[in-house]
Design a protein that fits this description.
The chain is of the alpha/beta class and about 375 residues long. About 50% of the residues lie in helices and about 10% in strands. It folds into two domains: about 180 residues, NAD(P)-binding Rossmann-like Domain (Rossmann fold), CATH 3.40.50; about 200 residues, N-(1-d-carboxylethyl)-l-norvaline Dehydrogenase, domain 2 (Orthogonal Bundle). The chain contains 17 helices and eight strands. The chain binds nicotinamide-adenine-dinucleotide.
Length: about 375
């Protein structure tokens, strides 16, 4: 069994490691020797850590012996039964790579993209057999994060969906099926609403950065506050993914604070400042956020648009309630799924909060989904 991983950066090296651990002979492809060498080093380091924690079933050397690097894309693809594409998030580049993959990989190879925002169907158009193109959206770092969103394109066949699910399980992951390739899939849509609304509450003077983050961490038990997370992952990363989603029809007024930080290059800990300031660029430390700061924040307003988005995903048949909750728990580390949080707060309060946000911002996206309205009217729950 041979796997080709295209792009040896943040995601690619992690996916290559998972594939090698699962028994594949992996060829890691990149345009840069430096990236390939760095990827091999990072994989060896990560395997070392896993070994120390007793998490490896075989020796590091035997796993590493299944990994090779190759700068020629044609050679990397030859004889591969599966390709994982993890090149930068640029449509033209992905189209070019999939065109080559469609021609050079074996006819029946599964061709998976790790894109965060580009619809799978758009990429599949350049492949002669588009039924084998699928999204396998791993989360960072792939070695540790349990979720993989399996994203079905318009033409992806059931057989290839099953193959992607099986591969994810072989990698020790929890696959969640995304039935339609809507921009941002499940997790990034929910997250976009949460981050943008957190930001709106601050720009409209209803809360502060610290109070929002405190409420999310200490009252809802999220692993990080919204602004903390943006600083940690990179304000540019979210800004660009959300822009790409918007270009494809996701309705969202980009909150101005995000735009300003992005424009000024204050991107989070990697640049030394973002929403918080850091002692030195590239040195992460946890911002100090007081436990009490978030006591007055209206939790319903904070999460209502994310809950509403989850309800939209269900009504549109993109996913089922249990899977939306599973994806938000595993992909974002929330202690409860986003719909469970909505149920706990009460859907009536969620709906009222959306109206309040609409009044405050005049943003069109703050509109209760028709299914939310039905749930509130009938007093039922989504389960
Ligand atoms: P990255 O910039 O860290 O790595 C991309 C790699 O691709 C680089 O090593 C680059 O040299 C290489 N590359 C560029 N052109 C290439 C080509 N023509 N052929 C082969 N390799 C090429 O990017 P990343 O963060 O690993 O993201 C990769 C993909 O995964 C993107 O689509 C991104 O949206 C998605 N993704 C990223 C994250 C994340 O948190 N970083 C999470 C989920 C999904």
């Amino acid at each position: 069994m041979k796997a080709a991983v295209i792009g040896a950066g943040t995601m690619g090296h992690g996916i290559a490691q998972l594939a090698a651990m699962a028994g594949y002979n992996v060829t890691l492809n990149d345009v840069s020797d430096d990236m390939l060498n760095a990827a091999i080093e990072k994989i060896r380091w990560s395997l070392g850590k896993m070994n120390e924690g007793g998490k490896l079933k075989e020796s590091i050397d035997s796993i590493m012996s299944r990994l090779s690097t190759e700068k020629s894309l044609d050679d990397a693809l030859s004889a591969a039964s599966v390709m994982f594409e993890a090149a930068p998030e640029m449509l033209d580049l992905k189209l070019k790579l999939f065109k080559i993959a469609g021609a050079m990989a074996p006819d029946d190879a599964l061709l998976a993209t790790n894109t965060s925002s580009i619809p799978v169907s758009e990429i599949a158009k350049v492949v002669p057999k588009p039924e084998r193109v699928i999204g396998m959206h791993f989360f960072n770092p792939p070695q540790l994060m349990p979720l993989v969103e399996i994203v079905r394109g318009q033409k992806t066949s059931d057989g290839y969906v099953k193959a992607a699910v099986d591969i994810s399980k072989k990698f020790g992951k929890e696959p969640v099926l995304v039935n339609r390739d809507v921009p941002g899939f499940i997790v990034n849509r929910v997250l976009a609403r949460l981050l943008n609304t957190s930001c709106a509450l601050v720009t409209f003077g209803v809360a502060t950065i610290e109070s929002v983050d405190s409420a999310l961490k200490y009252r809802l038990g999220f692993p990080m506050g919204a602004f903390e997370l943006a600083d940690y992952s990179g304000i540019d990363v979210f800004y660009l993914v959300f822009q790409a989603m918007k270009e494809r029809g996701f309705v969202m007024h980009q909150c101005s604070l995000f735009e300003e930080k992005y424009g000024r290059g204050e991107l989070g800990f990697k640049t030394g400042s973002g929403f918080y300031t850091y002692p030195a660029a590239g040195k992460y430390y946890r911002a100090s956020i007081s436990r009490d700061a978030g006591a007055q924040v209206d939790l319903a307003m904070l999460v209502a648009p994310a809950v509403n988005e989850a309800i939209w995903l269900v009504r549109e048949g993109v996913s089922e309630p249990q899977n939306v909750d599973k994806a938000t728990k595993l992909g974002l580390g929330y202690p409860q799924g986003i719909l469970e949080i909505g149920n706990e707060i009460g859907m009536q309060r969620i709906m009222r909060a959306i109206y309040k946000l609409r009044e405050m911002t005049s943003w069109d996206e703050y509109e209760p989904d028709t299914l939310l309205q039905e749930i509130v009217l009938s007093g039922t729950k989504l389960t």
